[in-house]
Design a protein that fits this description.
The complex is a heterodimer of chains A (about 270) and B (about 80). Chain A is an alpha/beta fold. Chain A contains 13 helices and eight strands. Chain A has one domain: P-loop containing nucleotide triphosphate hydrolases (Rossmann fold, 3-Layer(aba) Sandwich). In chain A, helix 1 packs across helix 12. The termini of chain A are far apart. In chain B, about 35% of the residues lie in helices and about 25% in strands. Chain B has a two-stranded antiparallel sheet. The chains are: A alpha/beta (about 270), B alpha+beta (about 80). Chains A and B meet through helix 7 and helix 10 of A and helix 1 of B.
Chain lengths: ~270, ~80
């Protein structure tokens, strides 16, 4: 039985889809069968980040409405044969999602895959609620910035009241990813540190991802940055995926600048 | 080393503001419109003397009695 994990953020533009794509591929690189599902109905994007936009024939709503079978709609990744993708519908409106249909879809995905990663839409509307409804766990993606953290807290609040697991008296696991950390700014006190953010949100840290200009290039090409061995963000996603697969990987320090002696001297006079 | 050369970063301001904003967001017991403001003011007062992690205000009603319970969680590290 597969593990269903929703990737949520509250605020848009914090790197939720990028995170979903990289974690999905990272889990597949750990030799587990993984499917990433785009729940952002009307604003399909995960296909581009994964470089699969030309392969989409059927989407999630067509599968739920019985217009296509699951095996017809699932797209195998070009980069790893353990990774599959199910596209969001680009045309139909968000009311296309219905609880019973989603539940049925997720149950059949559980039979075929070890990990089912759901990319939630931004915001806290019905599309978001439907994404978290049947998830066993949620990954909350934030940037070290006030509006992202506040919106994430609201999204967590809704997760705690609307998830089926919570309604059944169980707990939904919550993991935090802090994305786009600028070590220099944290060190000079201009950016919230990960410990500040953990204090405020009060959930467990899954990983920290540094700001990385290579992300744009990766999305331009449709090749998730985890495939780039020289990228700091790519390496961070690799560690996160391995942690999700149950490995004990230590958390490297990303919030101090390791500079030369001269830079340190300059730093003193800043 | 030379604190007077250093411009103070705004991260601590962000943390304080967020803590207060999120506390009032989480408070679904907003029976009074002034609750958030009152919370913020109480935090400011207590903070003059001791570190505060969070404040919870709940309204309890028992028969004819109404009471506000104010719970102040201290921050040992502050």
């Amino acid at each position: 039985m597969g593990n269903v994990i929703a990737v949520i953020s509250g605020k848009g533009g914090v790197g939720k889809t990028t995170t979903t794509a990289n974690i999905g591929l990272g889990i597949a690189l750990n030799n587990k069968r993984c499917v990433v599902v785009d729940f952002d109905i009307g604003q399909r994007n995960l296909d581009m980040i994964l470089g699969l936009e030309n392969r989409v024939v059927y989407d999630i709503v067509q599968v739920m409405d019985g217009e296509a079978s699951l095996s017809q709609a699932l797209i195998k990744s070009k980069m790893n044969d353990k990774l599959y993708f199910l596209a969001a519908s680009q045309t139909k409106d968000k009311t296309a999602l219905q609880s019973e249909k989603i539940s049925k879809l997720i149950e059949s995905l559980r039979e075929d895959f070890d990990y089912i990663i759901l990319d939630a839409p931004a915001g806290i509307e019905s599309g978001y609620e439907h994404t978290i409804e049947f998830a066993d766990a949620a990954i909350i993606v934030v940037n070290p910035e006030v509006s992202s953290i506040r919106d994430a807290d609201r999204a967590i609040g809704i997760l705690d009241s609307k998830s089926q697991k919570v309604k059944d008296g169980a707990e939904v696991a919550k993991y935090l990813i802090i994305n786009r950390i600028d070590a220099k700014m944290v060190q000079s006190g201009e950016m919230l540190s990960s410990s500040d953010i953990l204090d405020i949100l009060g959930i467990n840290l899954l990983g920290k991802v540094p700001e990385d200009k290579g992300i744009i290039d990766a999305s331009n090409q449709g090749k998730p940055i985890i495939l780039n061995p020289n990228s700091a963000a790519g390496q961070a996603y690799k560690r996160i995926a391995s942690r999700l697969c149950g490995e004990d990987i230590d958390m490297p320090e990303l919030e101090t600048v390791q500079g030369s002696f001269l830079q340190k001297i300059k730093g003193i006079f800043k | 080393m030379f604190p007077w050369f250093k411009k103070k970063g705004s991260a601590s301001t962000a943390k304080d503001r967020l803590t207060i904003a999120i506390m009032s967001d989480r408070d679904n017991n907003n029976s009074y419109p002034f609750m958030a403001q009152m919370k913020a003011e109480i935090i400011e007062v207590v903070k003059k003397y001791i570190g505060v992690k969070t404040i919870n205000i709940t309204k309890d009603v028992e028969g004819d009695f109404e009471a506000l319970s104010i719970e102040v969680q201290l921050d040992k590290n502050a």
